[in-house]
Design brief:
The chain is α+β, with helices and mostly antiparallel strands. It is 30% helix and 18% strand. It is built from four helices and four strands; from the N terminus they run H-H-H-H-E-E-E-E. It has helices at residues 6-9, 13-20, 33-50, 62-73, and strands at 90-94, 101-107, 122-127, 133-139. A two-stranded antiparallel ribbon has the order 1-2. Strands 3-4 form a two-stranded antiparallel ribbon. Strand 1 (90-94) and strand 2 (101-107) form a beta hairpin. It is globular, with a radius of gyration of 22 Å. The two termini are 26 Å apart.
Length: 142
């Protein structure tokens, strides 16, 4: 599915299966949803063991985050699509105190309400001690 448009994927039977019964899904040439969940949970638990009593930031795709949260909540994998994890949202899991707890899910209040305006092309110019100028950098947004 990598690199394909969601609109095209959503018409496939496999898409429907991922939404309804992800526990039965294996991607062509890839892993099962259950294996992806266990791989992500194992990675998170390894980070917890390596960084006791520390805060660790983990960045991933929304489905992987939802699979992790579902695991720690005891939610069957077939129900993980009921969780909402938006782009650039914040989810906080606390793995300490002998049990996992979900402290925050899908927080996005810190994001701007409107997308930022496209900045103009700009260049930073520095003047060297001998009086000549050099372009230090050019920033252009697509």
């Amino acid at each position: 599915w990598q690199g394909q448009e969601l609109g095209k994927l959503s018409g496939r039977k496999l898409w429907r299966d991922v939404q309804i019964a992800p526990s039965r899904v294996q991607f062509p040439g890839g892993e099962t949803m259950r294996a992806a969940q266990m791989r992500a949970v194992n990675a998170l638990e390894m980070l917890y063991e390596r960084h006791p009593r520390q805060t660790v930031a983990v960045v991933s795709h929304s489905d992987v985050i939802k699979l992790i949260v579902a695991h720690f909540l005891g939610l069957h994998i077939d129900l993980f699509q009921r969780l909402e994890v938006s782009t650039a949202s914040l989810t906080i899991l606390n793995l300490g105190a002998g049990r996992a707890s979900l402290e925050l899910l899908n927080e996005s209040g810190y994001l701007p309400k409107e997308p930022p305006k496209k900045p103009e092309t700009s260049a930073a110019v520095a003047t060297e001690s001998n009086g000549t100028s050099a372009t230090a950098g050019v920033a252009e947004q697509p």
